[in-house]
Amino acid sequence: MLIKPTRLKLIAGVLAALPFYSAASEWSYSGHNAPDHWAMLDTNGGYATCAKGTHQSPIDIPSASATHINAASASLSFNYQRSPLDVVNNGHSIQANVQGDNSLVFQGKTYQLLQFHFHSPSEHLYNGKHFPMEMHWVNQAADGSLLVVAAMIKSGESNTELEHIWSKMLPQKKGAQVQIGQAQAPDLSKTLPSTSKHFFYQGSLTTPPCTEGVQWVLFEQPLQLSEGQISAFRHIFADNHRPAAAINQREIDED
């Protein structure tokens, strides 16, 4: 896919803002640089939203009180496919940077898939319950706005699509990379839960700078990974989740 220069500039700006693309980040999930201290790590105030923001993510989803929206599912469609991946250990997660034309449409707006990554345990909770892992697909619209799709992961059968990545050996050390060609890569459309309702809410990045204005779409149905697949990830990242933030009277919709 050819990318126009204006789009290249836009992507560069978003990648600079997303901590998953930044090798210079000093934040972490434990010790003096843990989530409670993120706002203080940038002396220029760039992480202030992590403490002062009122629409932060993740949250605990109270499914019983979610507002039912009849037409919400019809406003969401995916155009994900098998695409080459650059899988990297960025020091915070295992992240797969996606090549090729992968997109979704939400409420008439098109977003391009930039990358997907994993957290353990899950960052979001459903009715107070954590899951062993959570997967995020990060998507960006032409105007720079972000939409993150999330699915919880539970222990069960081996995930045959994600095994395309696991079988290549997850990068063990920070900075290590594995490139996966299209023929060996997972079909990204099949990494999504096959049938599921969704939760929708307005939130933020779950990592510094905790930027707000992010549209979240969460599958209610979890994905499955085998105990071996979950253990392989946890061997590298035993805990890389941000604790849940206050909902602060935000509306949570369900289709």
Automatic annotation (TrEMBL):
Top EC class for this record: lyase
CDD domains: alpha_CA_prokaryotic_like (cd03124)
Record Gene3D superfamilies: Alpha carbonic anhydrase
Reactions listed under catalytic activity: hydrogencarbonate + H(+) = CO2 + H2O
SUPFAM superfamilies the UniProt entry points to: Carbonic anhydrase
GO terms for MF: carbonate dehydratase activity; zinc ion binding
Signal peptide limits: 1-24
Residue ranges of every copy of the Alpha-carbonic anhydrase domain listed in the record: 25-255
SMART domains: Carb_anhydrase
Record keywords: Lyase, Metal-binding, Signal, Zinc
Enzyme Commission number(s): 4.2.1.1
Family stated for the protein in its record: Belongs to the alpha-carbonic anhydrase family.
Record's protein name: carbonic anhydrase
